[in-house]
Each structure stands twice: as C-alpha cells, then as structure tokens.
C-alpha cells in the first residue's frame, strides 16, 4: 500500500500527509488529557469535546507556512526537528489562547504541556518512521553496492550521508587511522581501525573502498593505497579539498584513483615571479600547441595574462581542440590559432614578425620512440631540423627567449628519438655560444602521466579489456611527473636561464613499470595471473625491449650539475660542438634526409651525437623492406 502511495503525485502526497496530521493532532491532545486525568474521563469536559477537533484548523496552516509539507520524505534530515518544534510550539500557544477565551475552566492546564510533548512525538516521529519505510522500500527496489569509507572526518561523514540518500552505494563501515574515532557510529555506521579492514571486507561483502581523505598529502595517500593493495577491492576517492571548497565538484562525485596518488609525489607550488617573467604582457608562441605538453603549457600560460597567445600546430584537430578548451576555460585570454609546420621557415617568420612574438616555447616534436625508430628520417627532420628552423626564425625575428622542451631520452640516447632531441639541444647550444641575441634555454625531463602514448592510459585500457597488460621487460624503470607540474616547471626554468642552459627537472624516484602495472591491477580489484596464481584475472605479459628502448633512463650525461634557487630544477653542464663543425654535420645530414637515405642519416646521427649508443643499423621500415 505504501508503495502505491509513493507513486502518487506530489500534491496527492502532501494531501495525505496533511490528513495524517489532522488525525494525529486530535489524538495527541486526547492522549495528553487522558494522561493528565490518570486514565479516566471527567464528565465536566463533555461540553468542550469540540476542542479536540479544532487544532488542525490552525496547526496545518502553520505547518504549510513553515514548509513542512515541501520536504521530501526520503531526504529528510535533522532540520525537520526544528520545523516541527516551531510549528507545534506556535500551535500550543494558539490552543492556550483558545482555551482561555472560551472560558474552559474544567480543562486541565498542565495537559497543554503534555500535548506539546505528544504532538512533537507524533508529528516528528511519523516523519522519521515514513522516511525509514521509504528508504527501505527504495533499497529493496534498487539493491545498492556495499562500500567501506576510509576516513571518518567531515568529508567522510558528508559522503556517507550523500550515499545513504542515493541509490547506488550503501555505506557499511568507516575506517580511520585516528584511534579516538574507533567504535563511534555516525547514522548507524561504525568506525573501525585499518587493521580490521580484511575482516570488514569479508563480513560486509564490500565491493568498493572509498577514500574520503581530501586533505591528506600524496605521500600518506600512497602509503594507504599500498596497504589496501592486498585486499583486491576496487578503490575510488573524493576529489581534493581545493576542488571541494571551490565548488567545482561535490562530495558525492567520486573519482578513480589517479596514478599520481600511487607515486606519492607532492608537487611544489609554482613561484609566481618565475611563472610570469616571460609571459605577462608579452606575446607568447607555443609550437606543438595541441600536443600533451604543448596543450598544458598553453593552459598554464593563459593564466599568466599574456598580451597575446599564439597557438602553432600542424595537426588540425589538435589545434581545434586546444582552441576550444581555451574558449571555455580562459575566454579573456587573447589568442590566435595558426596551422603550420616547424619545418616551414617562411611560415614561422611570417607568424613571428606579424604578431611580434617575444617568447617561444618549442614543444613540437615526434616523441614516440618505436615510431621514430622505424621512421628515422621523419624524426630527424621534425625534431632536429624543425628545432633549428624554429630557432633561426626566432633569431631573425628578434624573439627574446626560446625554450626547448627536451627529454631524458636525450641523455646517452639508445634510440633515434633521443638522439634527435640531443641534436636539437646541440643546435641551440651552438647558437648561444656564437653570441645570439635570443636567449636559448633547454628543459629536460622524463615521462609525464597521461600523455598520449604513455603506459598509464594503455594499462587502464588493457585492464578494462581483461588483459593482458603488456610490459616490455621485468626490470624496466621510468621517471614520471604530472603534466601540470611538468608544464609549470618548464615555464619557471625558462625564466631562470641566462642562455645556453640545459635545465633538468627533479623527477623524484624512478618507478619500476612492472610494479606499476601490478599495482594498477590490484587497485582495480583484480588479481594478477601468474605461475603462483593461475586462476588470477589479469596476466602481465613481457614482450621484450623494443628497438632503441632503454632499461633505465638518465637525466644527466655527466655528473657536472649545479643547483638553482628552485628545489625541483637543476642546471646541467653539458658539452657542446662549435657551430662551424656542427653546421657541416647538419648540412651532410640534411642532404641524406632529402635523399630519404635512412642508412646514411642513421650513421651521421652517430657522428653528430657522440653519446648515441645506436643499434647496428637503422630500423627504418622502408630500408628493412628493401633488403628482404
């Protein structure tokens, strides 16, 4: 019957509640009088029986005015007590006045106080009883997934309340590190210590653990995630406190555990004077503006109030995407979106002169190691000669600062991509050494999380599809940082350079890729399938090192490194090649590339980049096909 009533319209439900109150109010007054009289009836009250039926005539309008009937039963909270208290108190005052004006001397005055208590109990209690019944019916109709909330602070309790009012999750228990909270209950949900988690997961049948720790630092989050890994239960987390405070997200909006939470690296807040030095009130150009690093650079630059932001990109869709992103997130930033290649000298000089570019962030590059390894000529032309062309255009157009986005793969490179980036560094170093008016700065860092081609999105997709997760070698390690932190550090390093500088970003500790894959599987609530666990869910398959791939990446060629006044930025002292010698090598290399002679280009790369620990011969697909 109650289920049928729940299907009524909103107005019909309000009418039913008013009818219920019209019955409960006379019952409350009758109960109060009978209790006061000791269970017997006083015949002197017979002429005044009408007093038991008139309270609804003034009480219901009071309740309507206070909004009691606008509240949705399922989502009632403790504020309903205040509403009922106010309404009943006003009703008792009116009742007292009516009794006095009617001269009802036989009516026991103390029963009015008892009526106040009974009315509160009947009206308020009926609401909470109905709320419980509605939620129970709702839970039966829509079975909810059992979850455990890690964190019983304010955010955890708010999350619990939000989930209890929803239809997706049922909070079964809290877990918190604070012993003073253990054995407390919040709305019927008890708080337990972390050591009880394995038992709680088993007893409650929890299918998900929710981290409600928006203010905990990354290092502590990493410790917690490592402790939860063995439970094989999927984990989601609340957004950060900054997002909650700003109102960008709500408490109940849960997120997947990010890989940066697993790394435990705490980003350093950017220094405003360094962020704005080359940007504020300047015309800034970003090449490769639609790429992973380029697009984040663009977003960071847009926040530093440039006079004009020039987006230069070869890929049409990538340019469109970043332009649309800025239109919604930084509409006040003046910008122009331009298609073009960094190998096109005429286009570059046209753009730089027309808009008066003062700062260039050169992020345009082919960066995928296997692709460049199999297409070396294209990689050399784009990465090395593209940088040389852009640098030449910058000098000719009077650009003040030119910042190259380099890579740790340029250090003692074992692949063509890394060698081309080292050659790009050498080109800029040579230009500075001969006295260029443009300040050339190079910033070298490792892998960024979430970039196109990164292992992290690949692993997520492979886990989603049921595996296998592919890792090239059991011992392969890489440095990681987030894209926003990398972009901020690039901008700050670019402001610190005097010219010819090679800056190295502190990437923290290297991460073993096999461990990263295993942890991502476990935190997805799955088991790794291997020799010890043949019934596991996801296999980690080792495919062998790809051509040109290193086991360990480095950030420095030598040990000659200097500190800067920024804790995450170091200055490397790298050797260079005099411009005359380098230019002769470049001319020969350009000629071989123009002939599409990958074999000769590969050999000249080893001559130009002396640290290039190359394979025996090029892996160019065309050359390999021609020799079959």
TrEMBL record:
This is FlaA1/EpsC-like NDP-sugar epimerase. Belongs to the polysaccharide synthase family. It comes from Paludibacterium purpuratum. InterPro entries: NAD(P)-bd_dom_sf, Polysac_CapD-like, Polysaccharide_Synthase-Rel, SAM-dependent_MTases_sf. Residues 284-573 form the Polysaccharide biosynthesis protein CapD-like domain. It comes from the Bacteria. Pfam families: CoA_binding_3, Polysacc_synt_2. Keywords: Membrane, Transmembrane, Transmembrane helix. The keyword rRNA processing does not apply. Gene3D superfamilies: NAD(P)-binding Rossmann-like Domain. The keyword Transmembrane applies. The chain crosses the membrane at residues 47-68, 80-104, 110-130.
